[in-house]
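Changelog-adjacent note: as of this version, every example in the card shows the full chain rather than a window. The one below runs 468 residues end to end.
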Amino acid sequence: MEQIVVTAIVQNCCPTRRQNLQDFYQGFDFRTREHAKALAGAVSRKELWDNYGIISAITPFSDDFPRADIHELIAGDLLHQVIKGCFKDHLVDWVFAYILLEHGETKGHEIWGQIDRRLAAVPTFPGLRPFHQGRDFKQWTGDDSKGLMKIFLPAVVNFIPPDMTQAIKYFMEFCYLGSCLSEALQDFLSLALDEASLDDSEDGPGESEEQQGNAHKSEGTAVEAGDDVDEDGAIEGPRVLGDVSLARQPERTYPRTLPELGLLFRVPDLTSLVSTFLYDQTHPEPLPDGFPAPPPCLPVQSIKVYHSAAATFYAPSDISGIGGMRRERIRATPSWFKGPAHYDCVFAENDSTVEGFRGLHAARVRTFLSFKSGGVEYPCALIQWFSPVADEPDELTGLWVVEPDFDGDNRPFYGVIHLDSILRLAHLIPVFGNAILPPDFHQSQSLDAFKTYYVNKYADHHAHEIAF
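Full-length structure tokens:
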């Protein structure tokens, strides 16, 4: 409605193109201020309205601006026209109508019931609201549409034809193209602020060494790990590519020896894993794959267990601080808010010379640890590894598919890695296949109940930038 008013265009007409919406396939015929003024002096008001979609009684506010044509300045409304209009009012309704047409009313509603359960079963992720009732809620908000579109594709892929799946995939890719523009704008604003700060420092009084030291101290504190409270979201501080730090306070009820911790976590070879980890940390070359046995474990002291760590990373395309920094908390706790266990998944570095997910690992954190060995303190994580099922993303959805690793005895394959190897949270969504989810299936079971998982690069813009 706002675009209609500022461009003086009749409702259901395009503010940037002259032809009717149904004639777009014939090509684009752009509106201009000069053309509108020429028509106003040549035809009647009724003809302007009926044939050209112009409201002659309204004069656009920009008409007197010499270099501002309102028809060139108008752009699509990302929320209402792209996300809500294309996704909710077109794609979701299109899928719903297809399923009812293909399977009939009774079977079609059963399928939509399964889709709703799949949406409700998606594991939690910061900034992504849970859909406990699936997509069946009375009033859609902008956050509902933006959240649902991030998880919709894995839930419906098995119920629609490949062409429809790829239509949704290409729509999602289009929505995330804006991240490149956002990052460029962020860099421009940061550069402008830096130049302004430089000008102020040249013209104004200088800071004392004590003031400068306090400023640096304040900035450094801003990116350190905080308490065990929620700190997800934008933060201030200097720009760093990524940093992961343990929570400030360890848990006090855990054993203080590796064998006892191994029994508690059901990882009997924890001592061996720590030994391999320490060898890799203290030698330039890691142990080769298939090495018969790790070297004897060095003495380990001051073992501490943590239920969370804070990941701070540069993500200017998402909600972030002035410097483009964002923080999220990675959790590995046996009970979350007195409920089920909560073990997050993460991206871990594999090969920094390779772009995208090919240079990363997906892993699930079992717990966070710190210990001292040889006078050095090591913050680390006990993780379960996931491996890609193919060398390329899934052709149909465009998402990487991974599976949990198991050893020869069909036990989860664990490893111990340094916190510096962790980049940030990863969002894995089950490859549901033909599974029929029961009504009481809970999202906390999802990461244990399926054989393969999609790496959801649509979780946010930063995930889209690193998990392609």
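Structural remarks: The first helix runs from residue 2 to 7.
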